[in-house]
Amino acid sequence: DVYKRQVSTQSTGECSGLTTLDLGPLSQVTMVEGGFLEGCSGLTILDLSPLSQVTEVQWSFLERCSGLATLDLGPLTQVTKVLWSFLERCSGLATLDLGPLTQVTKVLWSFLERCSGLPKLDLSPLSGVTVVQQSFLAGCSGLTTLDLSPLSQVTEVHESFLKGCSG
Hints:
Helix content: under 10%
Largest sheet: 7 strands, parallel
């Protein structure tokens, strides 16, 4: 019954052999936490549509899903908190539209850490964010320009914010 509302620790973690995954049965989930699809590097396409009810994403949501070249965050419009390693090490991503994340007010630990394939990133949708903690964009060495002005509401920034953004 709890899985109708929440997907928790090690649900599918380390499933690097998966090439496709239908999230359809998870349409009632409101919280995703604990290594949801961590290490699923074989996935090249992922439809997040069934997760449209999710309001909170915690711990390694798609960490190390390096096979994803694009990802539509469109269904995540209800999300208000993104905690710990949201898309960390998704180095295959060449573009990412954060537009659907306009409700997010808190971003904790390794939001897009080591997403080295991203040449640009529009942070405008994160204009409501007040707290940014450890390694926000650390290691995003592909970034050549970055406008931080949308983060004008931020009152707290923790270590390694942009560490290793050598581009």
